[in-house]
Amino acid sequence: FIAVLLLFSLSEVHSESTEKTKIHEIKKETKPIPEPAIKKTEDKPKPAQTEELEKTEKKDDDQPYYSIQVGAFSRQRNAEKIINRLKSKGYTVYMLEPVPGESALYKVRVGKFKSRTDMVDVVEILRDVEKLPIDVVYVK
How many Å apart are CA 138 and CA 97, to the nearest integer? Predict the structure, then answer.
């Protein structure tokens, strides 16, 4: 009786392990189906659309905004060094050239933000990580 029971137990263990092996082999054989490559095509804006886009951009420029000034330099090449450094790290950076009679400095600014709260994280990174002097500017 014990021998029959032992044989029965061994055959169950063997059948379970072969089932697991089969499942493992099936999983191993299945490969993910590659997604079809979709080529995005952009329609060129029609002249009327281009004019509308230009009007929208001009409206945005007329809106007041906050910006972060990270430097003011008497030499343009010094301003460009900071600009290149920040652009390489993904920042939106721009330079204001000197205005005759007002300022002889090349001002380097980062971003255009609708509110002060929108720029808090950027200010902290520029100050603490980039180690740049910060001056928040409101442009009307």
Answer: 17
